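With this grant's support, we have settled on a layout for protein records. A representative record follows, to show the layout.
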Amino acid sequence: MSEQDIEKRVYDCSSKLIMEKGFVSPVELLIRMEIITREASEEWRFRKIPYLERVTIGNLGKLNHILMALRKFAKEQNLKPSIMVYQSWGKGTKERLRFSKTGSQYMEDMYSTHYVRNNSKKLGD
């Protein structure tokens, strides 16, 4: 899949998520794009998988391009970025979940940033 194809897919899936939920998150986008399965994301949420990138389909370069295309889409659509804290589900102490193998703050922020529809503008305006 070319970079242009990836961007087209990101824009299409992100638009649908915004219309359905009023926001788009990288995790939901990756599920919608079939880069991760919902089941794998739930296993990660329950701490059965140490970091989300471990269960993605494709290489890290492709993932990075998806995240950058999402950021570009959000800027073009005037969506408000909001960093979310992802904590584990289930019994016991809630732990902060990790997205990337390296755990770099930049990548963790990229994965945990949700983009929320600005109520004063409609998608595409």
Remarks:
- Residues 3-116 form one domain.
- The mean pLDDT is 93.
